[in-house]
Amino acid sequence: MISDWGSTSRRHRHVTDGALAVATFALGILGSAVPPEHPTYLHVPDTFAVVVSALGSASLLLYRDRPRLTTGLTTVCALSLALAGEQLNPLIQAPCLAALFLLALRTDRRTARIGAGATTATVLAASMVHGPVFPWEIFIIGLISWTLLPAAMGDAMRSNTEYLAAAEARAELAEHTREEEALRRVTEERIRMARELHDVVAHHIALAATQARTVTYLMRHHPERAPEMMENLCDSTDEALRELRATVGLLRQRGDTDSPREPAPGLAQLPDLLRSFERAGLSVEVTTEGEAQPLSPGVDLTAYRIIQEALTNVTKHADTAGARVHLAYARRWVTITVVDEGSPGLPASPPGRVSGYGLIGMRERAQSVGGRLQAGPREEGGFTVTLGLPMRRTAQHPSSEEVPQQ
């Protein structure tokens, strides 16, 4: 209601200001026409009272731009009436009381308190010149009360308006923050999905390409073995389609009948992954150190995908038919090492092995769950990828004893 009144007042500024001046002038004339000794009778106010009341009411037209000046002018008018012998009452002081209310409403609390205190003191002192008709105690208490009350009301209304404005600003900020958080989560999910699709596609396309080249070679030199390799190639493409369907199916709406129901891959599916590489001609040896422990779903998926990417890089870049995967379980961390021996006749770091989006993607995957990844060529030839992952996302970074150094 207060905000509605304020907006209406701003839209019809001249009308509301004029109505306020007329209303306070009417109240001032009414207060001067009622003699305090005979409140049931009316008399015609003298010209001085009418003129002073008109000046005090007219000064209210300045309150929007100069509330302090308006308070001073209305206070001077009230002082003039008191010194002229008028018995002050809330009606006669209507312009002054309205100015105090508007001063508290449009300025700060300190200014409102100073204005109300100064007006009360000066008006009270001026009223003592001719003396009140009522007993001193009643008059003093009444004058102080009705002079300070408008300032208190204006301060309370201003505080309420500021509180509502602050609450609205907080609500807008919270809404904006929620929108930013939702956008950030959508962006992170898109990046995660893109990385997942990249890993799935890159792995199976690399295997399929290797198997297709093998089929071409076998058809020329060993045609009797080509059908077996063709079956392996078909199995690889079928597996690629299944994983793509499972990954993209996460984007389906609830209730879709063909949504995937397979769990996300993890180290439990590592034997199936290694068999797919064996069909492509890469023999992988797996060793385990320590007691195997369950990983959180996100960490488990990260370990699986990084092993998949590292072995895929071996099939694409390394001139070798063998690789080793070593899993070392510590108290809070698991360390995974993927090593390919390379070829003794090749340099330690073939072109394209050290840099590229594959290694960047693996590092980002590791960092997303609180782990870290090291990758680089071996002095004796080949390439090594060392991955340290926490058992849970809340674990701290591993110590040097937990993650082997290259």
Report the β-strand fraction as a percent range. Answer: 5-15%
Percentage of residues assigned to helices: 55-70%
> What does the overall shape look like?
rod-shaped
Order of helix and strand elements from N to C terminus: HHHHHHHHHEHEEHEE
Number of domains: 2
**Class by alpha and beta content:** alpha+beta
Cα-to-Cα separation, first versus last residue: 72 Å
Count the beta strands: 5
Mean pLDDT: 77
Strand order across the largest sheet: 1-2-3-5-4
- List low-confidence stretches: 345-355, 395-406
Rg over alpha carbons: 44 Å
Sheet having the most strands:
5 strands, mixed
* Total of helices: 11
Top keywords for this entry?
disordered C terminus, Heat Shock Protein 90, 5-stranded mixed β-sheet, 2 domains, 406 residues, alpha+beta, rod-shaped, 5 strands
Short description:
The protein is α+β, with helices and mostly antiparallel strands and about 400 residues long.
Description:
With 406 residues, this protein is an alpha+beta fold. It folds into two domains: 2-173, no CATH class; 266-406, Heat Shock Protein 90, CATH 3.30.565.10. The protein has eleven helices and five strands. The protein has helices at 2-11, 13-33, 47-58, 67-83, 94-106, 109-127, 136-221, 226-248, 270-279, 297-317, 357-368, and strands at 283-289, 322-329, 333-340, 372-377, 383-390. Strands 1-2-3-5-4 form a five-stranded mixed beta sheet, covered by helices on one side. Helix 2 (13-33) runs antiparallel to helix 3, helix 6 (109-127) runs antiparallel to helix 7 (136-221) and helix 7 (136-221) packs parallel to helix 10 (297-317). It is rod-shaped. Mean pLDDT is 77; it is low at 345-355 and 395-406.
